[in-house]
User: Fold 4Fe-4S binding protein from Ciceribacter sichuanensis.
Amino acid sequence: MAFKIIASQCTQCSACEFECPTGAIKFKGETYVIDPNKCTECEGYFDTQQCAAVCPVPKTCVPA
Assistant:
C-alpha cells in the first residue's frame, strides 16, 4: 500500500518532499504527488509515515 496527498488540501509547503526517505514525493502541476511505486509508507525507515507527520494540514497525506 502507499500514501496519497489530497490535492485540494495541499498548501504546497514542500515539507513532505524533503522528509520522504524514498524520494516518492514530487511537485507536479499545482500540487505534490506521491509515486505509489516508490512509497513504502516509511517501513524500514521510520515508525510513522513522515509525510503525514510533517504536513501542517491534518489528513492531507493519507493511505491510498
Observations:
- The two ends are 7 Å apart (CA to CA).
- Residues 3-63 form a domain with the Alpha-Beta Plaits fold (CATH 3.30.70.20).
- Strands lie at 3-5, 25-28, 31-34, 61-63.
- The first strand starts at residue 3 and ends at 5.
